Amino acid sequence: MKVHDVTLTLRPGMTTWGNEPGPTIEPLRRIAKGDSANVSLVSFGDHTGTHVDPPIHFIEGGATVDQLPLDALVGPCVVVEHTGASHVDGEWLGAHVPAKSTRVLVKTRNSRIWDDPNAKFTRDFIAVNASGARWCVQNGIRLIGIDYLSIEPQGPEKEGYPAHKTLLAAGIVIIEGLDLRAVSAGSYELVCAPLKIAGGDGAPARVFLIER
Hints:
The chain is α/β, with parallel strands linked by helices. It has helices at 70-73, 90-96, 130-138, 162-169; strands at residues 2-5, 24-29, 39-43, 51-53, 74-81, 103-107, 143-146, 173-176, 186-194, 203-211. The chain has a 7-stranded mixed barrel with strand order 4-8-7-6-5-9-10. A two-stranded antiparallel sheet has the order 2-3. It is globular, with a radius of gyration of 17 Å. The N and C termini lie close together (5 Å).
């Protein structure tokens, strides 16, 4: 058995969406200063790094992150690799996702961004467009993940946020900010463990893939 950690490390200075503040880690107590234990105060946005979008993120009254069904977050998963420069659409998913799949992670050229630990935020990334989102709904997908900080295309296709709204209205869990550099296309067991934040519209998650 091999376990692949596909989580970005939360740290000060990491790439964040737009102008959102990154994590801060403030020491509260330190053994080196005579305290009995090391304790820190950590602060970050709930859509920082590798994170989960629950329905409430775009659907008013939708399920919050602490209400997500755990059986959607854990189980068989396929990683598919999209090597093109266009966004991931329904036709492409239909040709590359095995029948009866319920959890799909899409590896794209985005993964190379994480080679630079100081990479600046960019809107030039591969995403899942509206037809791709509709395909997920029509084909029983319960969870979909992407290897950058949003699943939504930028530019004109972003208007109205069709990918997010289509997926989340159907109760499909979105994972954003995956680090899939070291993972090949194939079948895995997925474990996605978002922080259980009361009423949360998102939460950082530890995500790993088990290869048997």
